[in-house]
Amino acid sequence: MPRLGKNTLLSFWEHNGWCQGRDIVIIGAGFVGLSAALECRRRFPSASITIVELSPLCGGGSTKNAGFTCFGSPSELLDDWRVLGPEKTVELVAARYKGLKELRKNFSDEEIGYEATGAIEMFTQGDEKLEADVHEFVPVLNEALIGVFGGEPFSVGSEAPGVKGATSVITSPFEGILDTSKLYRSLLQRTLAAGVDIFNGCRIESIEADGDGYRLDFDYGYFEAKQVVIAANAFASDLLPELDVAPQPNRVLVTSEISHLEFRGSCHYDRGYVYLRRLGNRMLIGGGRQWGDGESDEVENKLIEFLKTHIAEDFEIEYNWIGHLGVGESRDPIVKTVKPGLHVGVRMGGMGVAIGSVIGRQLGGLPQL
Ligand SMILES: Cc1cc2nc3c(=O)[nH]c(=O)nc-3n(C[C@H](O)[C@H](O)[C@H](O)COP(=O)(O)OP(=O)(O)OC[C@H]3O[C@@H](n4cnc5c(N)ncnc54)[C@H](O)[C@@H]3O)c2cc1C
Questions:
Q1: What is the DSSP code string of 290-336?
Q2: Using one digit for the tens of pLDDT, what is the confidence trace for 97-143?
Q3: Atom 9, ligand 1: residue with shortest CA distance
Q4: Could you tell me the distance, in angstroms and rounded to a whole number, from the CA of residue 158 to the centre of ligand 1?
Q5: Closest residue by Cα to residue 93 from 73, 107, 109
């Protein structure tokens, strides 16, 4: 029975129409949750499928990211290589690149604002140890990844257009940038058109086994679902504490328009902890978690200083926001059935733009009706 106490805000219609007796409830309306819903719809054309999302739109990385279709800069991949080993690293890069190809197959470049700009990783004075390690690693990495890209993805150079003070750069033609709002909107429209309900403004607080399915409580009601899919990324461990994923705050800044901006495409610095890209005539810069707490003024000031030193001096900051990466011991996503009827797909390792749809599809393949 619905909880019709004095704190209950749901009407009879809302409870019966949206919350009761659902076949599949997906928690989180990010790229992964939306893609999982589309896959569930493909597999179960007449199932009732609801996505529950705590924010008015999306509260996670999927609308707060920088819009790189990244598969890992060489220094990030060196980290992965050390943690996960060569085979898993190659698998991960292949999945991310496949994600980009799938996105471009499912949506036109116009629909997602995709630009095949290529990307660079840059090194500066003080990075000598990392720079030497990465230069040594690039030929090994190129050989391992040649089958994924059909050519060597990385080449070492000394400079890049519009970048000042780099001691060296590594370029890759395969990474691009897209318009995050266009991608999210396109995916959202497709999900709604597939007859999936989205219930916004609702934070799931607990998931309890209930008969043959689950009961998902929120502060003014509950859902009943035969199958539950957790796509809550950074905050998934609030629901399943045993998951190795935690929120990592990341600041993003966007400048005012900069005249005579020469920088093109995107750039990674220091294991991907700092990322920058061109956005029209503005620059976007984000990250800086190697410098401290992502929400601190110190990190914000260092990001601005980095932009002034290496890209342009004359700008104001016009947009400034925080998003949360879902990170853990390693950067490989967790996609699994935790117990019968309860499935999870989280931890995109700060690189979910391209891989999110692939992981979402895998996750949407887990529920059984
Ligand atoms: C600042 C920033 C910059 C980034 N830049 C890039 C980039 O350039 N390229 C790239 O590839 N990746 C980037 N990422 C990472 C990428 O955005 C994420 O990996 C991807 O969006 C994750 O998608 P998701 O669907 O797993 O999670 P999310 O988009 O985080 O979605 C999870 C959703 O679950 C909801 N939720 C959580 N808990 C609950 C609950 N209890 N009840 C209801 N809803 C809940 C949240 O509100 C959220 O909307 C960036 C991330 C951040 C934060």
A1: GGS-TTSHHHHHHHHHHHHHHT-S---EEEEEEEEEEE-SSSSPEEE
A2: 999 999 999 999 999 999 999 999 999 999 999 999 999 999 999 99
A3: 68
A4: 34
A5: 73
The two tokens of residue 242 are: 């045993």
Give distance in angstroms: CA of 354 to centre of ligand 1: 12
**By the 8 A CB rule, do 2 and 10 touch?**
yes
Please list, in sequence order, all residues whose beta carbon lies within 8 angstroms of the beta carbon of residue 79, skipping any fewer than 6 positions away: 271, 331
Instruction: Residue 28: name the closest of 183, 161, 199 by CA.
Output: 199
Residue 38 backbone phi and psi in degrees, to 5: -65, -40
For residue 198, give the 3-state DSSP assignment: strand
HSE-CB for 284 with a 13 A CA cutoff = 24
| Residue that has been written with the tokens 């519009």 in this structure | 162
For atom 4 of ligand 1, the residue with the nearest CA is: 65
pLDDT per position as a tens digit, 189-238: 999 999 999 999 999 999 999 999 999 999 888 999 999 999 999 999 99
* Element containing residue 212 per DSSP (H, E): none
Cβ contact 39:71 at 8 Å: no
Where does ligand 1 bind, in terms of residues with CB under 6 Å? Answer: 27-33, 52-55, 58-62, 64-68, 70, 203-204, 231-235, 238-239, 250, 252, 286, 323-325, 348, 350-354, 356
Tokens of 239: 């629901």
Provide the whole-model pTM.
0.94
**CA of 24: how far to CAs of 27, 36, 58, 207, 209, in Å?**
10, 11, 19, 13, 14
For the chain, which domains are there? 12-64+182-245+330-364 (3.50.50.60), 74-177+246-327 (3.30.9.10)
41-77: b (≥16 Cβ within 10 Å) or e: beebeebbbbbbbbeeebbbbbbbbbbbbbbbbbbbb
